[in-house]
Amino acid sequence: xxxxxxxxxxxxxxxxxxxxxxxxxxxxxxxxxxxxxxxxxxxxxxxxxxxxxxxxxxxxxxxxxxxxxxxxxxxxxxxxxxxxxxxxxxxxxxxxxxxxxxxxxxxxxxxxxxxxxxxxxxxxxxxxxxxxxxxxxxxxxxxxxxxxxxxxxxxxxxxxxxxxxxxxxxxxxxxxxxxxxxxxxxxxxxxxxxxxxxxxxxxxxxxxxxxxxxxxxxxxxxxxxxxxxxxxxxxxxxxxxxxxxxxxxxxxxxxxxxxxxxxxxxxxxxxxxxxxxxxxxxxxxxxxxxxxxxxxxxxxxxxxxxxxxxxxxxxxx
Length: 317
Ligand SMILES: NC(=O)c1ccc[n+]([C@@H]2O[C@H](COP(=O)([O-])OP(=O)(O)OC[C@H]3O[C@@H](n4cnc5c(N)ncnc54)[C@H](OP(=O)(O)O)[C@@H]3O)[C@@H](O)[C@H]2O)c1
Description:
CATH topology: Rossmann fold
Number of helices: 14
Structural class: alpha/beta
CATH class: Alpha Beta
Mean pLDDT: 93
Low-confidence stretches: 1-10
CATH architecture: 3-Layer(aba) Sandwich
Bound molecules: NADP nicotinamide-adenine-dinucleotide phosphate
Number of strands: 12
Largest sheet: 7 strands, parallel
Shape: globular
InterPro entries: NAD(P)-bd_dom_sf, NmrA-like, NmrA-like_oxidored
Keywords: NADP
Oligomer: single chain
Order of helices and strands: EHEHEHEHEHEEHEEHHEEHEHHHHH
Family: Belongs to the NmrA-type oxidoreductase family.
Pfam families: NmrA
Strand content: 15-25%
Helix content: 40-55%
């Protein structure tokens, strides 16, 4: 975990003011909503389609659902009126089918931060990614996040940047090879790579928003486990009760699929492999799941799905 000096001071208690959550119908925002609700916090979800099934599920869980779009700054300002905190996450060009460009992602991220500033919220949490660092990566949807981080830090609004490692969820996307007793990913067989459960992103964010003065001004590299390619296969084999052979995604695929190839290069040079201090993180966030626990818990349905034969290729975001 890297830290910069904390902005200290007494916490501005939330009272009944809500936390505004972007991306609440998605993976990270959904986990943040659940974790905040588990703590009894008031939540306001900004959604594009309030009548959609996911928005209605949020509303049924006691969440205030308001219409808004990342591309409509006025809707963001309106959504943040009277809020105590904001969780900011954006879709990226790295997500197949998102239709989002890198310029879109940056514009969205800056708009959320500016709206939080204009609304005078007590704390903003921005979700970035672990490969972000002082040196540009050349991967569009990583370098976008460096630009958003910089903007967030420059604002007077107290903020925390979290940099999640690769999600455990992406390990079980279609195309992993598991139905055939194989498992393929970006790491080399003997190279450790860090991962985090999406559930834990939510829990960490809820804990940060419960103690804003402790976390303000900090950048938190986030992971729950670190495993080599061979170790990933061994954990999977333990759950399946049969051998699983690890093979890194083949070089010809990495050469053909440009984004995958660039991500693999970032794993090789260590930036996407992760640099979170797992022991220090566990001291603050003892709930962080290891891959083994995640497979037995929140990941079990995804493991079942990954065992069904598919014709899909590997897709990472
Ligand atoms: N995969 C990884 O391992 C990993 C690791 C670290 C960081 N990341 C980063 O995580 C981010 C994605 O987070 P996620 O996985 O939580 O995404 P996700 O599950 O795809 O959810 C995206 C959310 O954004 C909302 N959204 C999309 N466009 C919008 C718009 N114009 N206005 C308002 N809301 C909009 C979607 O709402 P709708 O329901 O309206 O579509 C949805 O709630 C990306 O930036 C990615 O680079 C990924």
